Amino acid sequence: MKTQTLTLVFCLFASLVFAQQKAPSAESKLLLTEKGIAAYRDLDAKNPDAVREIAEIKQKIDAELTEEIQVPIPKDAGGGYTHEQHKANQLSIFYAGILYKLTGEERYAARAKELLYAYAAIYKTLPLHPEKKEQSPGKLFWQSLNEAVWLVYSVQGFDAIKPYLSAEERAFLKAELFQPFVDFLSVDGEETFNKIHNHGTWAVAAVGMAGYSLEDDKWVQMALKGTTLDGTGGFLRQLDELFSPDGYYSEGPYYQRYALLPFVVFGQAIAYNSPELKIFSHRDAILIKAIYAAIDLTYGGFFFPINDALKEKNLQTSEMVFGVDIAYEITKDPRLLSIAQYQANFAPIDAGFEVAKAIGGSLAKPFEYTSKRFRDGEKGDQGGLAIMRATTSKNPSALVYKYTAQGMGHGHFDKLTWLYYDNGEEIIRDYGAARFLNIEAKFGGHYLAENNTWAKQTIAHNTVVVDEKSHFDGKLSVAEASFPKELRFDVSDPNFQIASAEIKEVNEGVSFKRTMIYVLDAAFEYPLVLDLFEIQSESAHQYDLPLHFNGQIIHLNVPLPGNKTQLSALGKENGYEHLWNLAQGKADAKLSQFTWLLKDRFYTWSTKTDISDELIMAELGANDPDFNLRNERALILRTKGKSNHYFLSALETHGSFDSKNELTLNAYNQIKSLELIEKDGKKYIQITTKDAGIKTYPVENPN
């Protein structure tokens, strides 16, 4: 208590020094204006349930008002006490400021001021964080990224209480807190600030929002154009280079979600303060496209876990709440309101109150998820991500075919991979990232070593591995320079959707072409996935095609001798060292078939094989002394001594299992044989079924 009193005395004394300096005005410049305040008060009077989030925030901050503030000297990495306390304080400053504007109660402004003054007392003299990350260390936090996040939230709290602060106090906070913060992010952290990357996005948004609120045009211009003010860095260049023309973010859906918040909140601040920039129209409304793209890159509300991704993230995260609310304020698209209803929350800004009002007025319409392809690369010429969906069934399915560019440092070596969703579940899965975010006991919340040795390696994905080596030999610089070429994408016929892509030199002298087809045919109970993976090579190799399935094994049509007494790792490196070899044996002479059960539905993978092929049942967990990896299984199809080769497979969904009533229907699949045939110079997949005869599907676009 004594220390806090001395701190406040110092800050009050120091503020007198700035009494004669030009202070920022008391006018609010950021995302909560008189428009939002009026909307809140109207809703609170007429339909208080519509703004219950504000009541919950009030309850939280009211409880904090009875406690002394805690601004500890930084010590802990992500997840530790000091890290989490500074994160909590940024929200307390933000929320207390919001409550002051909405209610007019000065006790909230006093709390936000007390916290801001406490940080002003220590920030200039803080050294780099003792647990600093090697790339871009922070002062309050282990990395400057978190520092930028702190400023994005805290400057909004400051902006909200400006009318409560005297001119001297505003000048003092600018000089003693915000100027040092801006200098740390843009001068000390110049490389990160100018980087075309999500860390750079957070940094420029923080500095730009501070510039608008504190009326410092130099900060704003740096944020827009980079530290040299020539456009080689900054927000505008990030908008031009980090998104494809379709709004796809280069690092993938997980990081698209994370980067979205600084993009949209700074974008909104620009729209309010610099309307002449027409920021939401920039590059054919790329920010709005990015928000819609983020929504489309989900199944059941959860983001497709490609590249470095944690599977728990969904549309209910704060980033997406801000994004959806701001997008609705601009577009008035009623479909966005159904997403907001799923989120069950709104951002406490002008846009959020407009969304709350619209939902209360029953304006929401369903957001329909349709088949789409998102091109990758700033010009849209670096591959893409194809999503093929069936929306007519009660439990819609989705085939995700990934033929994107690398995705910078968060990308995985998984060219031409795929995932499949059905019945609300991930059927063919991707591991995502090996990380326990903000759990300090697990390597301080960092990415784990296994993220590099397993999650990024090719064998961790559903694509071909050549000679047990990851694509591009796992070299990022090589992978960044190469990307797939889309050959076809056509979803005009919902019963026959097709995507095809190729990539050259994924391994030395080896190129890939993969065609994936999504078929709705009365011969099959549910949508059918067809997969043709063609390989061209100058010399013979071993090719492994893993299938990372999710569910309980039911049947394999060939016997696999299990390792009953001792398990060994499948290999020594490139991810193979993490796979236990549970069983290995010869594939079927014509067609290998594997059936598993997930929830109440059966899935059968049929793949054309011959007697020289092998099947391996593998389980993740070898060479994992700290038990960092999930124990997931994969079936691997291996062929040796081949140069040019192709894999032909089908995934068939069928039947049902009612565990409550012990009732099983159609546990056996329809496919009897798979063949790749050629007619008139064109390729076709021919399937012999049990009940519907022979079905033939063109590999080329049927139109």
From TrEMBL:
It is found in: Periplasm. Keywords: Lyase, Periplasm, Signal. Residues 69-278 form the Alginate lyase domain. Its main location: periplasm. Pfam families: Alginate_lyase, Hepar_II_III_C. Residues 375-643 form the Heparinase II/III-like C-terminal domain. Residues 1-19 form the signal peptide. It comes from the Bacteria. Transmembrane segments: none annotated. PANTHER family: HEPARIN-SULFATE LYASE. This is Alginate lyase. The lineage of its organism: Bacteria, Pseudomonadati, Bacteroidota, Cytophagia, Cytophagales.
